Amino acid sequence: MYSDETHIDGISQMQHHEDLFGNLTKRTFVDTDFDIVSVAITYDSKYAVCITAHDKFDKESKETVSKFKVVAVNLDTYKEYFTWEQSGKYIKMNQIEQNANGSVIGLAYQDMGKYYVTILDMEKEGEEIQTLNVSDLLKLGDDSKGIHGFWEPMITISFMPNNKIFIGVYHRMEMQQYHFIYEINQSTEDLQFYMKEIENCTTLNFPVKSFYSEVTKDIYVFYRQGQCITVNSENPENYKIENITSADLGNMYLVYDQALVVRSSSSILFFKIDENTGLWTKYH
Asked: Total domain count for the chain?
């Protein structure tokens, strides 16, 4: 029995055409050894790349060991394409970044306050192209460890044209962002590093994600406590910081390289750059 409030016109007619609607989605179960932290589909739609994690207490050393596996699954066969593994004492990793055609992926992570970036070749079964010890490059200590309960590693990367990557590191005790632009497989001797202090925040702040915009040629680094650092990709010494909201920021997407859609608690917020001021403005 249906009331007027629950009745939906057309449902009864659709029941006669169940065969048209019964197979619109395809479900396949793929087992992973560890719990899934995040998943990304490569831009060529060939693979699902999963970050999985597991903490295990080692009885001999009496220490907890963090184990991460990055697993790529073929979306045609649903079979494992490759696995990349990393073990440490206290690893944080949550984002899979990729170049414009999905042929190369980048992983930014930290272990006990030490920052790293690993680049993998998707066309060669995840062959490791390079791993950068970012902490050594910046001469940073290891006192900016990850926050318990969050997977964010305090380091973000964004792929740019011409085989370049933006790397941004946040030292939460100093409340400083360090950033630089690196060309894959090139020398690190002549790298230029830049630093920006983030004021009026706490030690629980961290960068959520960074984006490169093909439209503006800028890189945007968004922080948990509402800050955004904008870096000019062609002149990375030119950068600015602004507070775009007082709300805490979570998962986010840059739509059409110009509009930010972000989750904040139980709400979805929308931001765009004001044409007159050049600043991010909430519009919904």
From this structure: 1
Q: Are 230 and 219 in contact (CB under 8 A)?
A: yes
3-state DSSP assignment of residue 135: helix
| Cα 65 to the center of its chain, rounded Å | 23
Asked if the structure places residue 14 within a domain, the reply is no
- Per the CB < 8 A criterion, the answer to whether 159 and 171 are in contact is no
Instruction: Read off the pLDDT of residues 172-203 as tens digits, 9 standing for 90 and up.
Output: 999 999 999 999 999 999 999 999 999 989 99
Strands (E), 93-183: 96-98, 104-111, 114-121, 127-133, 155-160, 164-171, 176-183
What is the residue range of 39's domain?
Answer: 27-282
Residue 118 lies in a domain: yes
Q: Which residues of 18-57 are buried (b: 16+ CB within 10 A; e: fewer)?
A: eeeeeeeeeeeeeeeebeebeebebeeebbbbbbbbeeee
Question: Do 266 and 253 meet the contact criterion of CB atoms below 8 Å apart?
Answer: no
The CA distances from residue 273 to 234, 238, 278, in Å, are 19, 18, 6
Q: What is the pLDDT of residue 231?
A: 97
Which uninterrupted H or E stretch holds 11?
Answer: helix 11-14
Nearest Cα to Cα of residue 127 among 105, 158, 96? 105
Tell me if 12 is assigned to some domain. no
Under 8 Å between Cβ of 48 and 41: yes
111 falls within a domain:
yes
Cα–Cα nearest to 222, from 255, 175, 260:
260
